[in-house]
Amino acid sequence: MSPEKAVLPTWTRMALRSQKFLTYLVILLCLVQFINGSSHSLKNVENAMFRHRRSYELRRKGKESVGDSNSVKSMSNGSKPGVFATENCTVVVAQIGGTATLPCVVRKFNNGVVSWIRKQDYHLLTVGPTTYNTDDRFLVEHVRHLQNWGLLIKHVQPSDAGFYECQMSTHPPTSILIELKVTKALAEIQGAPDLYMRAGSSLRLVCTLRHSTEPPAFVFWYHEQRMINYDPGVTVKEGRSSSVLLLQDADKSHNGNYTCSPSNAVPASINVHVLNATAEEKPAAMQHANTSSSSSYSLARCSILLIALIPVLPNT
Asked: Which of 70, 139, 300, 304 is deepest in the core (most CB within 10 A)?
């Protein structure tokens, strides 16, 4: 140790140490401030560069979005919705002798020509409103404001069943299929084939239509071979799918065959038997018809009564 340091008092040495410490602290604080300032300036530079890059990307994306919007717009203009408003493979049911209407509704933006083709033999039926078929049962039912180009088939025959193609002359051509199913309408008289009734009672015959797709234009009733719709005492009530014949005070003259003959269905017949109110003239069929329900009810009552009496009967 040097002589100068040895002679320095203690408080002097402590002051020197404090001065050194303060110097180091000031230097440290300056370094920290310098580092913070540098980092702040670096952050400012980075932020400026980021903003510049961001603005460039936004400008570029803006140009691309304009191009994309134009392409989407052109695609939306090019990809129009379906040509037909009528669903493909629609099924239409018509009865023999009736009228079938096969729908074909196109959307309004289409300006092509509509044609109908029979798929069974690929025969061209119509082009636009013109019929290209010698069979005058086929024609176009065109409703312009609805853009409907339906195919009308009158006096439907069993051979008309099958698929029909409605084609639009777009590029390439577009089409849908319509299936026609043909049914056979049948008349049916309740109580057939035989009806037994007492003289003096009312005759009521109900004729219903099965597999019918449209109401008949008329229903004629025949007694044997004579039409009786307008006879005195006879009332005929017409419905969409039924016809009712009413006749008051039936007697022996009303015996015989009655036929219900709709204009568009296979006729049906029933045999009516008018009998006097004597037991000798009641046939087994009439007795069974009149007494079956009452005898069943009486048998049930007797069975219940016997079951109730069994516990109280004396043992033998």
From this structure: 139
